[in-house]
């Protein structure tokens, strides 16, 4: 499981990650929980991929967020 903590662009982040194979599970306050694609074993690598996906988006460079394995 990957956890993305952010306050802004929440809907856009969910759409971005779902379009890239992640499954939105739930939201608790600023924490957004996502299941990783099937067969993934290295969560640290997935954290890096999610960070890169967000940063590469048109608004990703200005967002304050963090991504952790959960």
Fill in the keyword field for this structure.
alpha+beta; 2 helices; 70 residues; 34% helix
In short:
It contains 2 helices and 4 strands; from the N terminus they run E-H-E-E-H-E. It has 70 residues and is of the alpha+beta class.
What's the layout of helices and strands?
Layout: E1 2-6, H1 10-19, E2 23-28, E3 31-35, H2 43-56, E4 65-69
Antiparallel strand pairs: 1-3, 1-4, 2-3
Major β-sheet profile: 4 strands, antiparallel
Fraction in beta strands? 25-35%
**Global morphology:** globular
Q: What is the residue-mean pLDDT, rounded to a whole number?
A: 95
* Order of neighbouring strands in the sheet with most strands: 2-3-1-4
Structural class: alpha+beta
What would you call the quaternary organization? single chain
Query: Helical amount among residues, as a percent range?
Result: 25-40%
Number of helices: 2
Order of helices and strands: EHEEHE
What does the radius of gyration come to?
11 Å
In the predicted model, the low-confidence regions spanning at least 5 consecutive residues are: none
How far apart the termini lie comes to 5 Å
Domain module count? 1
User: Number of DSSP strands?
Assistant: 4
């Amino acid at each position: 499981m990957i956890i993305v903590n952010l306050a802004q662009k929440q809907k856009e982040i969910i759409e971005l990650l779902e379009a890239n194979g992640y499954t939105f599970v739930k939201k608790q306050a600023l924490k957004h929980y996502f299941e990783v694609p099937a067969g993934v074993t290295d969560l640290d690598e997935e954290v890096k991929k999610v960070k890169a996906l967000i940063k590469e988006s048109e608004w990703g460079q200005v967002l304050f967020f963090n991504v952790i394995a959960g």
